[in-house]
Amino acid sequence: MKNRLGILVVCLFCQIALGQNNSRKPLHGQVVNSKLAIESGYVMNINANVRTFIGSGGLFDIMAKPKDTLLFTGLAFQAKKVVLTEKDCSNVLFVVQLDLANNQLKEVVVRKDLKVKSLDKDTQKYVDMQFEDDKQSTAKNIAMYSDQTIKYGTDFVRIFKDVKKILTKNKDEVKPEVIDDMAFIQYSRANFSPDFFTKTLGLKNDEIDLFLMYCSNDPESKRHLKPEEKFELMDFMVNKNKEFQKANVAEK
């Protein structure tokens, strides 16, 4: 009796697993650009951990289902991430637009502008509105007095204290914006030599952007973007490369 129950449980799990795999269906798609024809590149389904090549005319086929995340890369084109919808999977041909790559390095961490409030006008305006002595009075050195002070000059000590107070007040309000996938790719390319990707990680030149896009999908990738954390980011990439290489085996 126990053996039969065990067999039924195993069969049930097998049916569930097969049902999950069968829920993905072939997705016929095309990658396009308004200026250049896309004849090569990669499409990767990170949920299924499989990838395929982009062929002639930008056409591709890959197993997918709604809510799967697809990564697209191609030479001379910016990498792109797309989360599939029900409509995408039901279309006869799923079309994806890729933009031409921009070689200019973007700022990775963009901070919001710090707006310094104007100083107290009620006190400063009285200093600004005062005038020189009457012309009939005894001539004086109005530029500098013997005690090295400037007559009716601006109180820079007070200004410094006011500005310091404003900066301290707004310190906690200045937060970095979310780093997007393209910024992460460009940051990584700028801070690591090509040999790190091709020799240390064993990637092909046309696989590098796909790999970096794959890394950027992990929130952990955004936590090591300080110059002093370069080794932590390197270690993260080495570990992610092990997962990435499994997709290569699945493809073959």
Main features:
252 residues; 8 helices; four-stranded antiparallel β-sheet; alpha+beta; three-stranded mixed β-sheet
What do you see in this structure?
The protein is of the alpha+beta class and about 250 residues long. Helices cover about 40% and strands about 15% of the residues. It contains 8 helices and 7 strands, in the order H-E-E-E-E-E-E-H-E-H-H-H-H-H-H. The strands form 2 sheets. The protein has a 4-stranded antiparallel beta sheet. Strand 5 and strand 6 form a beta hairpin. The longest helix has 22 residues. The relative contact order is 0.12.
What's the layout of helices and strands?
Blueprint: H1 2-22, E1 25-32, E2 42-45, E3 50-53, E4 59-64, E5 69-74, E6 77-83, H2 86-90, E7 94-97, H3 121-128, H4 156-170, H5 181-191, H6 194-200, H7 208-216, H8 230-251
Parallel strand pairs: 1-7
Antiparallel strand pairs: 1-4, 2-3, 2-5, 5-6
What is the helix/strand order? HEEEEEEHEHHHHHH
Helical percent range? 25-40%
Rounded to an integer, what's the Rg over CA atoms?
31 Å
What proportion strand? 15-25%
End-to-end separation: 43 Å
Give the structural class.
alpha+beta
User: Uncertain spans, ≥5 residues at pLDDT below 50?
Assistant: 17-21, 104-121, 173-177
Largest sheet: 4 strands, antiparallel
Average predicted local confidence, pLDDT:
75
What is the tally of beta strands?
7
Which descriptor suits the 3D outline? globular
Strand order of the largest sheet: 3-2-5-6
Number of helices: 8
